[in-house]
Design brief:
Blueprint: H1 8-11, E1 15-19, H2 28-38, E2 44-48, E3 54-55, E4 58-59, E5 73-76, H3 80-92, E6 98-100, H4 116-127, E7 131-132, E8 139-141, E9 146-148, E10 167-172, E11 175-180, E12 183-184
Parallel strand pairs: 1-2, 1-5, 5-6, 6-7
Antiparallel strand pairs: 3-4, 8-9, 10-11, 11-12
Helix pairs in contact: 3-4
Length: 191
């Protein structure tokens, strides 16, 4: 069996391609860029959208193939009908990990074709890269100041709230849980 891909390229990414980045305030594409910048991420940020020359002070690329280096992380902020091709393009560009927020729901699935979720898993598995999503909110790594999400995060997030222990934030629909070492916790950061 093939070895599972390591998570370092995702959680410790030194470069991020933001596929579907946008200048349109209130859009997922805009918020993905805002979160990376607001978090203080110091790695290379490559917005990807053929409709723009620049987004929030960063040169924009028409496709992920035009990004000047293979990104450690590709954040895929595209619709369900585009996410499979976006992941395939990211893999072809050498991306070492990917995140998608798409629900991966197909309105009219083809009867003899695997579900979209399975097709994405096959692309990631074949390429040997970790894939976060779909139908999720992405992730945060405050050690790296990396906010790989398209959803607003609190301004007052501080490093060290849970010490140096691994933390898992899980979201399913409207249900949000925080786990630390497999135990549910309601611990809050104190000001």
């Amino acid at each position: 069996t093939a070895a599972r891909p390591g998570l370092e390229p995702m959680f410790e990414a030194r470069s991020v391609a933001v596929v579907g980045a946008s200048v349109k305030e209130g859009s997922l594409g805009h918020q993905m860029m805002v979160e990376l910048l607001r978090g203080g991420y110091e790695g290379a940020i490559y917005p990807v959208n053929p409709g723009y020359a620049e987004i929030l002070g960063h040169p924009c690329f028409s496709s992920i193939a035009e990004v000047p280096e293979a990104p450690d992380l590709a954040i895929l902020g595209v619709a369900n009908h585009r996410v499979e091709q976006a992941l395939a393009d990211a893999v072809a560009a050498g991306a070492r990990s990917a995140v998608t927020f798409s629900s991966l729901h197909e309105d009219d699935p083809e009867p003899d074709r695997p579900p979209l979720r399975d097709r994405l898993a096959t692309i990631a598995r074949t390429a040997g890269i970790p894939l976060c999503g779909g139908n999720g909110m992405g992730f945060l790594n405050e050690d790296r100041q990396l906010r790989a999400t398209g959803f607003a995060t609190p301004d007052d997030m501080r490093h060290g709230c849970f010490g140096r222990r691994p933390v898992l934030l899980e979201q399913r629909g409207g249900d949000l849980r925080l786990f630390r070492f497999g135990r549910f916790t309601t611990r809050r950061c104190k000001g």
